[in-house]
Amino acid sequence: xxxxxxxxxxxxxxxxxxxxxxxxxxxxxxxxxxxxxxxxxxxxxxxxxxxxxxxxxxxxxxxxxxxxxxxxxxxxxxxxxxxxxxxxxxxxxxxxxxxxxxxxxxxxxxxxxxxxxxxxxxxxxxxxxxxxxxxxxxxxxxxxxxxxxxxxxxxxxxxxxxxxxxxxxxxxx
Length: 173
Prior knowledge:
alpha+beta; 5 helices
């Protein structure tokens, strides 16, 4: 990779936690955003898991791409690995990403490992809402994660009807 890019599709969009040179709207191909990861640390516990987003196979996903300077590459990778690989439910991959005007780059991204015990698969809106409503972890309440993500998706003009339905069900309780 000539340039170093990081793809964010969930909390990385609104809380990257690292220094970057540029932040652009982007689309990753081959994966879609899914509330499919049982969180044992950040938004839940092993005894009471929450739910967080993962990139699951199929489709495409709109999010953001962060360009990181060469001098910060290793520090950013170290940070991301501590953040994203804490329980190894994600796999670090290089993803094809499209930026504005059709520009193609390759970006580091974290996809869900479907073989991992924390993979929740497809849940109903009600199952997801019940889990999100009742969970919290080291990074705070699960519902705050969901609502922050939905707010940032809305700001970017990204609709995720299933995720919006989960948010509405959590807010209605």
